[in-house]
Amino acid sequence: MTDIEIVEKLRRDLGPAALEVANPDRRRIFLKVAPGSLTAAARLLRDSYDCAYLATITGLDKGETFELLYHFASTEANINVRTEVPRTAPHIASITPVIPGAILYERELQDMFGLVVDGIPDARPLVLPDGWPAEDHPLRKDWKFQRPAEIIPGGKS
Amino acid sequence: MKFQIPIGPQHPALKEPISLRMTVEGEVIRDADIRLGYNHRGVEKLAEEKNWVQNIYLTERICGICSHSHSTCYVQGVEKLMEITPPRRGLYLRYLVSELERVHSHLLWLGVAGHEAGFDSFFMYTWRDREIVMDLLEMISGNRVHYAMNCLGGVRRDIDEAQKAKILEGVATLRKRSEYYFRIGASEPSFVARIAGVGLLSKELAVKLCAVGPTARASSITRDVRKEDPCAVYDELDFAVGTADSCDVLGRVVVRVQELLESYKLIEQMIHKLPDGDIAVKAPRKAKAGEVVSRYEAPRGENLHYIKSNGTDKPERLKVRAPTLANYPATVEMLRNGFIADIPLIFAAIDPCICCAERTVTLVNFRSGEETIVPLSDLRRQAAERRTNAPAKRNAVWPF
Lengths: 157, 400
Prior knowledge:
The structure holds two protein chains of two kinds.
Chain A: H1 3-14, E1 20-25, E2 28-32, H2 38-48, E3 53-61, E4 65-73, E5 78-86, E6 91-93, H3 103-113, E7 116-118
Parallel strand pairs in A: 2-5, 6-7
Antiparallel strand pairs in A: 1-2, 3-4, 4-5
Chain B: E1 3-7, E2 19-25, E3 28-35, H1 43-47, H2 52-60, H3 67-82, H4 88-116, H5 120-141, E4 150-151, E5 154-155, H6 161-187, H7 189-195, H8 203-208, H9 213-217, H10 225-228, H11 249-273, E6 290-298, E7 301-309, E8 315-321, H12 323-335, H13 343-349, H14 354-357, E9 362-364, E10 371-373, H15 376-389
Antiparallel strand pairs in B: 1-2, 2-3, 4-5, 6-7, 7-8, 9-10
Helix pairs in contact in B: 2-3, 4-5, 4-11, 4-13, 5-6, 6-11
């Protein structure tokens, strides 16, 4: 399938669920869906577009909302599914029932953006240490790193 | 009776910090759990505060072995955002270094695989030969590890005729040796007996768990970004994707040796086809607002950078997905129902690069079994407290 065929097929298959389909570059397709139809879109991509491979999930802090990008890839194209969740209620359904390999990326999202992934099989923190404050999410734009004052044992400062 | 054995974060079998927790029944692993985060450096957050040029050097330091792959992946994305096209010669030189890097990384891995399988002479042979390609990289870039070849709009160093001849000569030697390794790797009975059937990962599982790179290709998935999404020069060159269908560590050895041979072919073609002209164009200071997904086949698998620009000289967001992270869920499945003695072999077979996948310390209270991860500052504080409470040390007295 060429890029144009994929774009048309996506429009046809998803109908009104596809809020936006763009093809800015060769082999790059950006699809926007509502958070509610994300799992359905992932299942469709897996079953009829040969996109069982999820490369990663990118989170983006856009102020009022968090944007999530699910980077799928087949042998022909790289399909990126975009969705937005509000900052006040950052909930997203887990896509691990469809793509089990997404688990680490969803855990990373929870750590870094403070999103809540509903239905995630393993919700432990992935990269942040255990003593990390629960309300600190490093990749949010309003989070700034402050280096703690270094205390050298032995009294020298 | 089930036991849990912690392996790592510091363990002689692992070269980098990662914690594997194995649930074992006798000698058989029933479940494995991977705990990451010991090496997280916050590169993605840091990248938002650096400008486009500084980030080339930051991305290069994500990994120590495949340093060129991260910076290439970043640079090819930013070039798209800035709408500049590097000259052909610059592109050929960039991907020439990529292939040389793949050769050095795979030779390194072959040595590690031999070492973990208890075949140390194989390890010494491959690492001796790796010096040839390391010397070539040093000759081209001036460095053995962080080549710093990439700049926005091309590469920083050119090569001359004498250097071309040296590269061809080095590649000819390496090819002869690699063919010999291929014969050993596929037919030496004790080596094959050790690695065949270890760490099985069926094709269905590899697809389900989104495995990448040689790990996926050893399970007969022909996924290679150089073929699927050819960046710049790869569609002009002739090469094949190495695959195996044995789904075990033997398959991963075979795939990597095949890739070595394909890389030699690519290097020779690039040297012969090297166009004349400039090696770089000048890049603007700012990039237009936009976003780009950049993919690159690193030695360990697909590398993906998502770059978003807001029109300033700094990125709005840089997302890095290193191949090792994608292979962890598959590793857990490979370890399951294997033997404890196979852990280092299976784990080494994905060619893990922990510092790539991440960008602190676990303390287990041995009385209650409770676990806490403490930052370095707390450890220091505890150490200082302990020292003040410790009984005063006397000078050691020689007992006789």
